[in-house]
Amino acid sequence: MRVSAKVDYALRAMAELAAAPPGLTTAEQLASAQHIPPKFLESILSQLRSAGLVASQRGAEGGYQLARPAEEISIAEVIRELEGPIATVRGVRPDELEYDGAATGLRDVWLELRSQIRGVLEQTTLADLAGPARKT
């Protein structure tokens, strides 16, 4: 699985929002805390706002906050909103693939891989990220 910089930055910023005290956090604070390029973060936050994952307020007292409780936002949801399906092979969903001959079993491998990846990403929330260190 390849995780893009966009997804990595988005999850880091959203983990900061999940761990922040109630209220608004500026994009500058998020960028500084996670060492994210500010312009790129602004673009990501705009996409997350359009997806209904973060809420924003403009002005001198403005900033960002999660649109829902951190316990209700999974990593999988963030990835899907930013980049589409979790696991594809050459841009095709594994259940839509067909292989011939000796490679026939490869489809099942891709389906199992997708299932395992989804399981971890759908069960892990922003609250999990922002809480005590995860055990691997």
Give the tags:
single chain, 136 residues, mainly alpha, Arc Repressor Mutant, subunit A, two-stranded antiparallel ribbon, elongated
Structure write-up:
With 136 residues, the chain is mainly alpha-helical. The chain has a single domain (5-130), classed as Winged helix-like DNA-binding domain superfamily/Winged helix DNA-binding domain (Arc Repressor Mutant, subunit A), CATH 1.10.10. Helices cover 50% and strands 6% of the residues. It is built from six helices and two strands; from the N terminus they run H-H-H-E-E-H-H-H. It has helices at 5-19, 27-34, 38-50, 75-83, 106-123, 126-130; strands spanning 54-57, 63-66. A two-stranded antiparallel ribbon has the order 1-2. Strand 1 (54-57) and strand 2 form a beta hairpin. The longest helix is centred in the C-terminal third of the chain and has 18 residues, at 106-123. It is elongated and about 65 Å long.
What is the compact description of this entry?
The chain is mainly alpha-helical and 136 residues long. It has helices at 5-19, 27-34, 38-50, 75-83, 106-123, 126-130; strands spanning 54-57, 63-66.
